[in-house]
Design goal:
Layout lengths: L1 E2 L18 H6 L13 H14 L5 E3 H4 L5 H10 L3 E3 L5 H5 L2 H10 L1
Parallel strand pairs: 1-2, 2-3
Length: about 110
């Protein structure tokens, strides 16, 4: 089962001059998930982790590098602890490109 529970971390941050996706979010305000009223990003991701862990016989494919391309350490931990969790790498090249050495090690380990 392919699952998508989050978007880039910038979509969960305040919409101000420090948000790298400010212009994009101004054009698409429906993509902005700042808390409140939405749950914080880490709460959403921990919910995903609990779901994957509680259904070990279900194969989950986490969209966009496990739904958290900006934090490959978190994704690697889930991959290590949940043999039923896989990732695709669609639409997150920018996030992976910002961490080339970490991304390289992540893919070598896979």
């Amino acid at each position: 089962m392919s699952i998508h529970v989050s978007d880039p971390t910038a979509f969960f941050r305040p919409l101000d001059a420090t948000n790298e996706r400010c212009e994009q979010l101004q054009h698409h305000p429906e993509w902005h998930f700042q808390s409140p009223p939405y749950p914080p990003l880490l709460e959403v991701l921990e919910g995903l982790w609990r779901l994957v862990k509680s259904h070990p016989r279900t194969t989950f494919i986490g969209a966009h590098v496990g739904c958290y391309a900006e934090n490959l350490g978190w994704v690697a931990r889930v991959l290590d602890e949940a043999p039923n969790f896989y990732v695709d790498i669609s639409a997150r090249l920018a996030e992976l490109g910002r961490q080339p050495y970490t991304a390289r090690e992540f893919f070598i380990k896979l």
